[in-house]
């Protein structure tokens, strides 16, 4: 046995025999032993280094409760981190629920020592911590210190006194008998109890989930400038949202009207990745300007991938089935969930979602409020139309099969090859029918509504099993894709069949982002909405720019004029983005935000109330983030960052929360200036 245990055995006889013994009451108050409070940690490997991270207070308490219930002999599972990770108590493992991730080791921690590399405290193993605790208890009770223990790796730990405990890192000395543990070497601090190691322990998340948001990434496994995965980026987004809820929805939180919004990543890259396309790309990518080329492979190339019929079908199938799978799993784990679901896409992710949404089939009750009685007749007419189609394709012998399946024209246009196969249609006729569907789909969309956004003709779009409340697009190329597909204009009356809200959010320097509103209102020129700063005002440099612009009108002063010229030559021209509320509420009579010699004020006022059609229920669609002062100095330098900045952008998160909670009738504590 280790010397720690033998030390305890020697010390035991001198312990009071029983609480009833005469010595017990005489123990000094200073010698009173109090048991250590354990805290649970999990181990995360970051850049091939192990990091021990504390669970939140509420998670640790739940784990401790499960542990002390004595039921961890069976494999007890405790949900943690808002239900996104399960802890298997017996195996001491933390397992991700919704996505693939390395399993983490879990530990019930009471004793820690300071690590070598970064001065972070590392917990001792549970068994050795118990030895340390027992030695400590004996030392405190008997007030006998300078106790020596030997760790499992044969290193010496000395308990000098309650405040000073040291772990000696051995300098290996070798003799004929092999190495012996030595006390020399660099001493490391040893601490008892998590409260003594200054660990940042989060409180935990509100248990109630009000709304669920699925987040779909662009191509490539990296989602931001630090090459982190979608899971890490969505974690950031979620953390920012928890801070924003505390800062801007305090009233609603205090009245327990709201809990939180859950954000879950949808990872489709791995299924595309399995086709080996990344390796092929790597092989043909030139070695020069390495970072830029990899950035292009991960963003701009989105365009080519999605335009290829080979990858397009794989991508839409994976995204839809993953979103449906996650939704069902979420409901299974949160049976009381009554909230809505929204979806958000970054870069190509937003285009995939847009195409999926334009191809969703609106539920009959949405379309036919007034046509209750005519349903049966219209479905009969639909069946007749299908017979006509089969006749023109010389496939009349299959009419009975389609009639038996109650297949009308609309249902036929939603058929996939798999459906036709299940109906028993042979390969030849199947190909004819699919070719007819894809060719007619394009013509149909032009005939019935020439302004309907065209989706990828070559793909069959799966159906989602829920209706999204709002669709948020971050840094999105939707506008460009529609234009390239030949859509010149989106009909102002067009709306997504199953989704009422649509916001297109972008950074002014994002090279992949395009606007949507000019496609609905091509004749008027107007700026996107300026996203309010989360602190409730414009960023200082934008205010300074405008301030200088305004002052230079009043004071025709050379010095000020040169200051303004210098400022504007450093930065871009002032961003004359529309601030809706500013036009209505600013009583100080602010002049126009554009340069004074430019357009007069009434035009701006008009722009804030411009009718941008029904795509977002009559509300504005395009929202531009305010650039940071440093970004103004070099637009090109920050173009890459502009495309990847959304995950940690408080302004973006706040807009998402504001719009989601507005659907539940809950508003911000203080309306932000410039918000709709």
From TrEMBL:
PANTHER family: PA-PL1 PHOSPHOLIPASE FAMILY, PHOSPHOLIPASE DDHD2. Residues 594-605 have a biased composition (Basic and acidic residues). Residues 1-12 have a biased composition (Polar residues). Residues 464-662 form the DDHD domain. SMART domains: DDHD, SAM. Residues 1-23, 363-382, 580-605 are annotated as: Disordered. One of its GO terms (cellular component) is COPII-coated ER to Golgi transport vesicle. One of its GO terms (molecular function) is phospholipase activity. Coiled coil: none annotated. InterPro entries: DDHD_dom, PA-PLA1, SAM, SAM/pointed_sf, WWE_dom, WWE_SEC23-DDH2. The lineage of its organism: Eukaryota, Metazoa, Chordata, Craniata, Vertebrata. This is DDHD domain containing 2. It comes from Apteryx owenii (Little spotted kiwi). Residues 13-23, 580-591 have a biased composition (Low complexity). Residues 26-108 form the WWE domain. Belongs to the PA-PLA1 family.
């Amino acid at each position: 046995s280790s010397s720690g245990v033998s030390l305890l055995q020697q010390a035991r006889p001198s312990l009071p025999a029983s609480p009833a013994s005469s010595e017990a009451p005489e123990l000094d108050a200073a010698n009173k032993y109090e048991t250590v409070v354990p805290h649970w940690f999990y181990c995360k490997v970051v850049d091939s280094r192990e990091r021990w991270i504390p669970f939140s207070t509420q998670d640790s308490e739940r784990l401790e409760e499960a542990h002390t219930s004595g039921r961890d002999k069976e494999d007890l599972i405790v949900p943690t981190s808002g239900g996104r990770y399960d802890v298997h108590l017996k195996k001491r493992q933390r397992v991700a629920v919704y996505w693939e991730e390395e399993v983490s080791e879990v530990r019930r921690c009471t004793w820690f020592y300071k690590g070598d590399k970064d001065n972070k405290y590392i917990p001792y193993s549970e068994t050795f911590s118990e030895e340390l605790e027992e030695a400590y208890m004996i030392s405190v009770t008997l007030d006998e210190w300078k106790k020596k223990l030997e760790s499992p790796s044969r290193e010496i730990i000395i308990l000098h006194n309650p405040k000073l405990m040291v772990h000696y890192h051995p300098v290996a000395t070798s003799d004929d008998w092999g190495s012996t543990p030595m006390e020399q070497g660099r001493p490391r601090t040893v601490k008892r109890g998590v409260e003594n190691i200054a660990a940042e322990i989060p409180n935990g998340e509100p248990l109630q989930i009000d709304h669920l948001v699925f987040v779909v990434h662009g191509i490539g496994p990296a989602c931001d400038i630090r090459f982190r995965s979608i899971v890490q980026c969505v974690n950031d987004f979620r953390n920012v949202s928890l801070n924003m809820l505390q800062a801007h929805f305090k009233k609603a939180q205090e009245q327990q009207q709201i809990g939180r919004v859950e954000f879950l990543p949808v990872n489709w890259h791995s299924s595309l990745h399995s086709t080996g396309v990344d390796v092929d790309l790597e092989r043909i990518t030139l070695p020069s300007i390495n970072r830029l080329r990899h950035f292009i492979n991960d963003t701009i190339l989105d365009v080519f991938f999605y335009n290829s019929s080979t990858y397009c079908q794989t991508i839409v199938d994976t995204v839809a089935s993953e979103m449906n799978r996650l939704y069902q799993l979420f409901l299974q784990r949160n049976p009381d969930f009554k909230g809505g679901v929204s979806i958000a896409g970054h870069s190509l992710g937003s285009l995939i979602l847009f195409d999926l949404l334009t191809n969703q089939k609106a539920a009959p009750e949405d379309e036919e409020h007034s046509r209750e009685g005519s349903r049966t007749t219209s479905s009969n007419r639909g069946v007749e139309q299908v017979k006509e189609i089969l006749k023109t394709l010389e496939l009349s012998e299959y009419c009975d099969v389609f009639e038996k399946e109650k297949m009308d024209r609309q249902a036929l246009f939603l058929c996939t090859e798999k459906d036709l196969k299940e109906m028993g249609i042979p390969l030849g006729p199947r190909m004819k029918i699919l070719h007819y569907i894809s060719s007619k789909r394009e013509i149909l969309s032009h005939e019935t509504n020439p302004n309907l956004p065209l989706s990828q003709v070559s793909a069959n779009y799966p159906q989602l099993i829920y209706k999204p409340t709002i669709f948020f697009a971050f840094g999105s190329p939707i506008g460009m894709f529609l234009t390239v597909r030949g859509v010149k204009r989106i009909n102002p009356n067009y709306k997504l069949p199953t989704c009422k809200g649509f916001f297109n959010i972008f950074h002014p320097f994002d090279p992949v982002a395009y606007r949507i509103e000019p496609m609905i209102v091509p004749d008027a020129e107007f700026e996107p909405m300026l996203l309010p700063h989360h602190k409730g005002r414009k960023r200082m440099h934008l205010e300074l720019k405008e301030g200088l612009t305004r002052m230079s009108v009043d004071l025709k002063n050379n010095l000020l004029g040169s200051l303004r010229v210098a400022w504007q030559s450093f930065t871009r021209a002032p961003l004359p983005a529309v601030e809706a509320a500013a036009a209505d509420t600013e009583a100080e009579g602010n002049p126009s935000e554009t340069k004074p010699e430019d357009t007069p004020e009434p035009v701006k006022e008009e722009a804030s109330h411009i009718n941008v059609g029904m795509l977002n229920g009559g509300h504005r669609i395009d929202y531009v983030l305010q650039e940071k002062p440093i970004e103004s100095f070099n637009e090109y330098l920050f173009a890459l960052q502009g495309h990847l900045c959304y995950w940690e952008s408080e302004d973006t998160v706040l807009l998402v929360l504001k719009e989601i909670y507005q659907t539940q009738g809950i508003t911000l504590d203080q309306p932000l200036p410039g918000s709709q």
